[in-house]
Amino acid sequence: MTGLVARFAELRELRARYPELISARAAGRKRRPLLRDDGRLMIVAADHPARGSLGVRGVPGAMADRYDLLARLLTALSRPGVDGLLATADIVEDLLLLGALDDKIVIGSMNRGGLSGSSFELDDRFTGYDAATISSMGLDGGKMLTRIDPVDPGTVRTLESAGRAVTELSSRQLMAMIEPFICRRIDGRVVNDLSTQAVIRSVAIASGLGATSGYTWLKLPVLDNMAEVMAATTLPVLLLGGDPDGPAEQAYARWQAALALPGVRGFVIGRSLLYPEDGKVAAAVDAACALVHS
């Protein structure tokens, strides 16, 4: 822990005195192909805080301590089998300055405007990365949350913005990762519809966004009837973990079954691995990597 204290002190100093180092570190970062021989990806996600979503396992402020989150991310990214990171610019830049992103895939989170619990939560405006910056920083793609509420007029703005982002990323030959949900408000709270037919509908809508789908990947929840969902698309799919609400063994069993389906390429998982029930981040990450790269 003493070593981390020193590294975090250096990080604060670099941010205050030498912000130009961020772009320099990005330019000098060792890159890798998107897919290696097994064609699988294990991506660690850390873009929840920028949407004001700090809770894990019912603990409201579990992700509030940035230094604790960075320590967990450093552990996760150091494990063999972890291919990369999905995060907002602030976290990507912290990890660039900490030297943790060499030989990793890095996906920038693009739309964080729909703040968790707000009256405008479904207005998923693009307040994070844009395609031009993702390209100039040498990142590997961009991710967009695309929540679709048929009775909320703000949905059309989200769809238009996501379609434009897909086109702009694809024109630069960069991954466009879409995370679609059909959703609705219940007692003022946004709830994702995780029924099989709703997820299939979200897949159909997301697949058609943009002027080309050549670089589009989908980030989808794991359902009991995942085979029917995967039959709805030819696009490559990564599975999301979500906020864990049960024993890890149950989650791993569902993930393993879904990973065996054609078209599923791996995971994009954050809270489940960074904040495991037993606190053992390395063990949780290793178990997920074993499923992906077995």
Provide a descriptive summary of the structure in words.
The protein is of the alpha/beta class and 294 residues long. The protein has a single domain (20-293), classed as Aldolase class I (TIM Barrel, Alpha-Beta Barrel), CATH 3.20.20.70. It has helices at residues 2-17, 21-28, 66-78, 89-97, 131-136, 154-171, 196-207, 226-230, 248-259, 271-274, 281-293, and strands spanning 41-46, 84-87, 105-109, 141-148, 175-186, 189-192, 216-220, 237-240, 264-269. Strands 1-2-3-4-5-7-8-9 form an eight-stranded parallel barrel, surrounded by six helices. α9 (248-259) runs parallel beside α11. It is globular, with a radius of gyration of 18 Å.
Count the E strands. 9
Series of H and E elements: HHEHEHEHEHEEHEHEHEHH
> What number of domains?
1
Q: Supply the helix-strand structural class.
A: alpha/beta
Contiguous uncertain segments of 5+ residues? none
**Radius of gyration, CA atoms, in whole angstroms:** 18 Å
Distance between the termini: 32 Å
Kindly report the name of the CATH homologous superfamily. Aldolase class I
Just give the CATH class: Alpha Beta
The percent range for helix content is 25-40%
Contiguous helical run count: 11
CATH architectural group: Alpha-Beta Barrel
Keywords for this structure?
294 residues, alpha/beta, globular, eight-stranded parallel barrel, TIM Barrel, 9 strands
Task: Describe the secondary structure blueprint for this structure.
Layout: H1 2-17, H2 21-28, E1 41-46, H3 66-78, E2 84-87, H4 89-97, E3 105-109, H5 131-136, E4 141-148, H6 154-171, E5 175-186, E6 189-192, H7 196-207, E7 216-220, H8 226-230, E8 237-240, H9 248-259, E9 264-269, H10 271-274, H11 281-293
Helix pairs in contact: 9-11
